[in-house]
Design a protein that fits this description.
This protein is α/β, with parallel strands linked by helices and about 300 residues long. The chain is built from ten helices and seven strands. The protein has a single domain, classed as Rossmann fold, CATH 3.40.50.720. Strand 1, helix 2 and strand 2 form a beta-alpha-beta unit. Helix 2 packs across helix 10 and helix 5 runs parallel beside helix 7. It starts with a helix and ends in a 44-residue tail after the last strand. About 45% of the residues are buried. The structure holds hexanoyl-coenzyme A (HXC). The site of hexanoyl-coenzyme A (HXC) has 23 residues, from helix 5 and helix 8. Its EC number is 1.3.1.124. It comes from Hypocrea jecorina (strain QM6a) (Trichoderma reesei).
């Protein structure tokens, strides 16, 4: 499926600003990270994208390569960010086939909607492992290559839920808070060696896996949600891709160790507003005993084991 350029990139950027550069992206077949990668490829970079699903990842790589004639995009499937060996092998292959690694996007993430009572200890650990250990493993496996680049940059994809806390996202909020913290330490430890490390924190972005999991599918709730966002609309994948281009370009080289929300100021009004609920009930009514699984998107009906 070829994607019109206006879907993922503003017309303000100069061609070839990333010419000769290589980007390495975990979760690169996903709805947000594939557009971040596509924008970078369109503007000159070659790319290596990683995912657990081999056919999805390989197909996404082929499709992203259509963004620029002559682009090289490698898709590496069966890569689980929870396994450091998996990432080390992928980073080595990327460097061998594309000549190095200049930019890294740590985008692989796990999410489901569940209350604290409704997830097991193992479910909590699963999200922590994918998001936190996965980001750490990505950093660990790619730093040796980044340190050889003239423009080493790391960008982690986080969220905004932990700024306020969020019902049914305790596991995700805890994980993303850790991701933000990890990147701060990378900036402190590796900034003196030239590495620029930041976090991009998408808000509600239309048409993404995150929104499919988290946003209501009821039209009246969708409209109410959009109205509650100070910028008056859901974000687009282009909003995230444009911000990514800026954050990986020379124009932002003094922005280091920062968390950049791209959310239309949405997080400033979140908290009591909830995600992942498909019923009319408002906070805190849906938390009443016996009601926490009612209307929960993809939610399990039974109580989790400890
Ligand atoms: C409660 C659940 C659950 C649910 C899974 N679990 N789904 N618990 N409610 N809806 C529990 C399982 O029962 C199990 O616990 C534990 O989680 C691990 O589940 P597995 O299926 O064995 O794990 P795994 O195969 O590794 O799958 C990981 C996953 C899955 C996170 C559960 O959803 C996944 O692979 N997701 C990857 C894609 C993804 O989530 N993308 C979202 C990106 S959107 P027990 O105790 O039974 O063993 C995003 C948006 C962020 O991140 C926010 C932006 C604003």
């Amino acid at each position: 499926m070829s994607v019109p350029e206006s879907t993922y990139l503003s017309p303000i950027w100069r061609d070839d600003i990333f010419k000769g550069k290589v980007i390495f992206v975990t979760g690169g077949a996903g709805t947000i990270c594939s557009m971040q990668t596509r924008a970078m490829v369109r503007l000159g970079a070659n790319a290596c994208i990683l995912g657990r699903n081999a056919s999805k990842t390989e197909a996404a790589a082929k499709d992203i390569a259509t963004a620029r004639p002559g682009a090289k995009v490698i898709g590496i499937g069966e890569c689980d960010v929870r396994k450091i060996e998996s990432l080390e092998a992928a980073a080595a292959r990327c460097a061998k086939e594309l000549g190095g690694i200049d930019y890294v996007i740590a985008g692989a993430a796990g999410n489901f909607v569940a209350s604290i009572d409704g997830i097991s200890s193992n479910a909590f650990k699963t999200v922590m492992d994918i998001d936190v250990l996965g980001t750490y493993n990505t950093i660990k496996a790619t730093l040796p290559y980044l340190l050889r680049s003239a423009t080493p940059r790391l960008l982690a994809v986080s969220a905004t839920f932990h700024y306020t806390g969020m019902p049914f996202q305790a596991h995700v909020a805890a994980a993303k808070a850790s991701v933000d913290s990890l990147i701060a330490s990378v900036a402190l430890e590796y900034g003196p060696r030239g590495v620029v490390a930041n976090v991009i924190a998408p808000g509600p972005i239309a048409g993404t896996e995150g929104m499919a999991r988290l946003a209501s599918s009821r039209p009246e709730q969708i409209a109410e949600h959009e109205r509650a966002i100070p910028s008056g609309r859901f974000g687009t994948v282009r909003d995230i891709a444009d911000a990514t281009v800026f954050l990986l370009s020379d124009a932002s080289s003094y922005i280091n160790g920062q968390v950049i929300p791209v959310d239309g100021a949405s997080w400033r009004r979140q908290g009591a507003y909830t995600v992942g609920v498909d019923m009319g009930a408002k906070y805190p009514d849906f938390l009443e005993p016996g009601r926490t699984t009612e209307g929960l998107k993809g939610g399990k009906k039974d109580k989790a084991k400890l």
